[in-house]
Specification:
The protein starts with a helix and ends in an 8-residue tail after the last helix. It has seven helices and no strands. 79% of the residues lie in helices and 0% in strands. It has one domain: LemA-like domain (de novo design (two linked rop proteins), Up-down Bundle), CATH 1.20.1440. The longest helix is centred in the first third of the chain and has 57 residues. The chain has 187 residues and is mainly alpha-helical.
């Protein structure tokens, strides 16, 4: 009779451990989803700012149509990637960041535009948003790292395998322009 109670005790302890590990994995998976949602919030903010920036710039930059079209195209592509995975989304966002960097480089040739208060306010908002996007990406990748560690380490890897948890995708920079250091010139 004592052996039966020992076996029942062991089964209960294993069940409690299984439930605890499962709940921890669910928590980490939800943390990753939340981190991804935070990136979406900042990207939406960026998408909303770009048309206002473009309208302000249009009046000054009549001869820079190609640059403006590239920004608009990259913004539309990035918005269409809403349901794509982190890798595809990262590539589209990298292209948008590159297009915006080219636009801001072209702006340097227009002193009147650089002095326009509306443009300066929009540029500041965009810079702030880019910083928030960067922080959100970092937070997302940290969350994915913790989650992936949990589903790959023993004993939680056994629970993850039995319950269908899959590794998360990191949000990575794919645009070479984003990997390069910015060039600063005072000429």
């Amino acid at each position: 009779m004592a052996a039966v109670w020992v076996i029942i005790g062991i089964v209960v302890v294993l069940l409690v451990i299984f439930i605890a590990i499962y709940n921890r994995l669910v928590g980490w998976r939800n943390e990753v989803k939340n981190a991804w949602a935070q990136i979406d919030v900042q990207l939406k903010r960026r998408y909303d700012l770009i048309p206002n920036l473009m309208e302000t710039v249009k009046g000054y930059m009549k001869h820079e149509r190609e640059t403006m079209e590239a920004v608009t195209k990259a913004r539309n592509l990035a918005q269409q990637m809403g349901s794509a995975g982190a890798a595809e989304r990262g590539k589209a966002e990298g292209e948008l960041s590159s297009a915006l960097a080219r636009l801001l480089a072209v702006v340097e040739r227009y002193p009147d535009l650089k002095a326009n208060q509306n443009f300066l306010a929009l540029q500041e908002e965009l810079t702030s948003t880019e910083n928030k996007i960067s922080f959100s990406r970092q937070y997302y990748n940290d969350s994915v790292l913790k989650y992936n560690n949990q589903i790959q380490m023993f004993p939680s890897n056994m629970v993850a395998g039995m319950t269908g948890f899959k590794a998360g995708e990191f949000f990575e920079v794919t645009a070479e322009e984003e990997r390069e250091a910015p060039k600063v010139s005072f000429t």
